[in-house]
């Protein structure tokens, strides 16, 4: 997000130059629009002529944005309707999150993809990786890796770690090749990968099939580069009861370090608690949650902004929702709002009493506005 903001400021100030043709064209369009409105107000042009000039200005504005703007990416419908074979395979599978541990430039640096390549082959390989063009939503596939200037900082830190970046580089100066080191580092992070819910892994190089089962392989482009899809069969589900709950002090860095060593097996989680424990019932040292992960969860509704579940258990449980814990989310148990806890640094969870209950997670921008008014205006 910081990089995005800095980039926008840079674009803004660099655009304020009369030597930039985009500024000149923009000023010309504004002047033409002003002239048109003035003539129309003074009734110096007829109604018919006003309609024609309005249409011309609208077309000119569209052509200007389409032809000269670098902030828009255009993808042909035919390209989306004819995805690479590995993406077609994923579209036919049960829903599950996708992760691409190695980027186009990783493969290029590792010698899998040559530096000089035909444009069409390059586009096919990029689409087969889904990243970096981030075509996953266009293909109807959910990806953990995505381009978004406002991606949650906590999640981005985890993705950077899995990439071997941010001071935790997988690359060293020993005799091993660059890509071999990346693979070795990635395969050691199985606990995080399972927790994040990355079921399918796309790779152009083999992975350890004791950890990831190969489900698909086919050569693509004239270079016959193998596009492989591996499945992480023991991935954590989208909704589940945690079999153990650990409480740690609230803090981004502490949670990040804890997640790096999360166990590969089981459904144990940790939640963050502030010093003011009384505002979070599960954080009160006088209370205990005998969560054992035993119970049933039935998904009644699953949409982008609303999820409704039916739960049944003989003991109080802690329900985990593997979705980013962002401002705007609210949770309800039997229509009564309950507190959402941050789980594993990035996801959400709520306490659920024993018995049968309806649990709802709902996202709305109204919540963000209410919190903003409460924090910055009323106070």
**Count of helix runs:** 13
Helix content bin: 25-40%
- Structural class comes to alpha+beta
Shape: globular
* Low-confidence sequence ranges: 166-171
The strand order across the widest sheet is 8-9-15-11-12
**Rg result:** 26 Å
Write down the overall mean pLDDT: 83
Number of beta-strand segments: 15
Task: List the helices and strands in order.
Answer: HHHHHEHHHHHHEEEEEHEEEEEEEEEH
Strand proportion, as a percent range, falls in 15-25%
The major pleated sheet works out as:
5 strands, antiparallel
Cα end-to-end separation:
27 Å
Characterize this entry briefly:
36% of the residues lie in helices and 22% in strands. The protein is α+β, with helices and mostly antiparallel strands and 379 residues long. The strands form four sheets. It has a five-stranded antiparallel sheet, with no helix packed on it. A four-stranded mixed sheet has the order 1-2-4-3.
Please give a structural write-up:
With 379 residues, this protein is an alpha+beta fold. The chain is built from 13 helices and 15 strands. A hairpin with a 3-residue loop joins β8 and β9 (306-313). The longest helix is centred in the first third of the chain and has 22 residues, at 47-68.
